[in-house]
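Task 17 of the worksheet. Students: predict the tertiary structure of the chain below and write it out as structure tokens. Keep your answer in the requested format; marks are given for formatting as well as content.
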Amino acid sequence: MRIRILGSGSSGNAALLQTEGAQVLIDAGFSGRKLTQMLHEAGTRFEDVQAIFITHEHGDHTAGLDTITKKHPHLTLFANAATARAVQTKLSRRPNWQVFQTGTRFRFRDLEIDAFSVPHDAQEPVGYTFASGDDGDLFSPRRSLAWLTDLGHIPGHVRQRLAAVDLVAIESNHCTRLLEADIRRPWSTKQRISGRHGHLSNDGALEILTEIASPRWRHICLTHLSRDCNSLEAVENTFAPLRNLLSSCAFSIVGPGEGTPTLDLV
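Model answer:
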């Protein structure tokens, strides 16, 4: 299992997940042209991608879907019914929807997917865990990751899932101090961002990850950083104690609009 975050932040979000039997995208929040370029840089192409898993309908997670699904009709789009309905209103044709029920586990090729509810101001937003492999297989052991962007807090059912994966991709959206000091956003927007259905702050993400601190974690990716109300330095300073606590776990801080190299879960 390998994952490459293609881009992350309020300007767009997408990731490429690869296993022996599947190549899928998680969200498609950039233009079709940009995503095609990103896949080329990752050494693949849309013709080799089979599916897109959508977390919620906001544009920074779905912007490329209309172009992509017209040009590549073979793609399967996975979403719950509420998200599929909301996304479909923005599309000029009906793609190949595969609708799941939030809270269920299902399979696609050699992936086992768990789609679960997260608290965010969208129709029915979800987080995902993806798993592949078999613990009894020496050459292809079971590996898993959790994908969590856009959530205001972490309920108990999400914490349980976080503790059981090898890689955690989670948002660390804003620095509370920088958000409060921001003069470009009205008070109502700041309240939405910092609310329980908004976005996790650096301190909020740190608190949860410190509470769980699973010995299974191999890599933590801190994503969806605000360009105006966060900084790489603020995230680095906030998470320094956790990095010391989890000395065998790698960390990636994904800057606004940036991605990661391919991360191999071995």
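Marker's comment: DSSP finds nine helices and 14 strands in the chain. The radius of gyration is 17 Å.
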